[in-house]
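agent: user wants the structure for Chain-length determining protein from Methylovulum psychrotolerans. delegating to structure tool.
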Amino acid sequence: MKKTHKTGPLAALKKHPVLATAVAGAVLAGGYWGFYASDLYISQAHVIIRSTEISSGQSFDLGSLLGAANSADRADQLLLRDYLLSVDMLKKLDARLHLREHYSAPEHDWFSRLGTRFNDTLEIEEFYDYYLGRVSVEFDDFAGVLVIQAQGYDPQTAQAITAALVDDGERFMNELAHNLAREQVSFLSKQVADIGQATLKSRQALLDYQNRHGLVSPQASTENRAGIVNALESQLATFQTTRSAMLGYLMPNAANIVELNLQIAALERQIAAEKAKLAAPEGKPLNSTVEEYQRLEMLASFNQDIYKTALTALEQGRFEASRTLKKMSVLQPPTLPEYPLEPRRIYNSAVSVLMILLAAGIVHLLAAIIRDHKD
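agent: tool returned. relaying tokens verbatim.
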């Protein structure tokens, strides 16, 4: 009796174990992605950071004409991105939204949920790696905006994570700017106090100098004495002219000539005395007194100008420390997703099947090569 051989798919699978394994793997992969994988909802927001500082002039920026973000704003947004993806941000979100419980809930599929350990013993490093896989913060260099995305197993949680990132991000940027402004205020307050003391000392030195010399203004005193000397010299010139004219018809010993000579001599003595006072009052030249007074006055005026500038800077710093320095403009508020975008079931199933079949083909080819060498 002739023995019949069974033909068909099952017989072919039994004859080729690699193919059977590949088919089984493809079925499992398709079943996982098609039925078992948990839905993930994605909420996203678009934000941009702008400085509220009012500048006196606007500089020409070629980058802004080409559509690129301002360098300062770009640096702020990259700084914000680093903060939103930090461990500190993860801890705040976990304390506020209980992310551990949400991501590790047993009703989610085993492969996508957070770890396999108890929540209390899960290391922060593992939790942080998982967080980076569920939260994305990318800077769009062309549009100059920050795109924030968060994944959750339900729409409300995904939206809550994104909203918390936006709110805490703006608070962080303003707190960072306020800390810098407060440090500047502290520094300026100390400088204002020191400059104020220096100003008071210079003003007091000027007052002491005035009191010591009995002069409110040496410059004015010098000008007054010079005016007196000029008036006396003018009067002396008049008398000398009169005497010269009278000598034309009177004798030198005439009474009028003698009187003029006495007046001229008195004026010359007075002029000499005034010039002596102008040059050296009480043994010290008046011009030296004026020079020293002007130096003290200039120092006092200089310190006062610096004090005014420091006070203006201090008030400006206090104003900066109390207002919103960085404004986060929300171009797109956190969305409430209506359809799970992850996982991409058809795409992931197709890719998994292709990868499994490719691996099976490679194994089958290697096995054929080995058999040929044995034969």
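agent: one observation worth passing along. The two ends are 32 Å apart (CA to CA).
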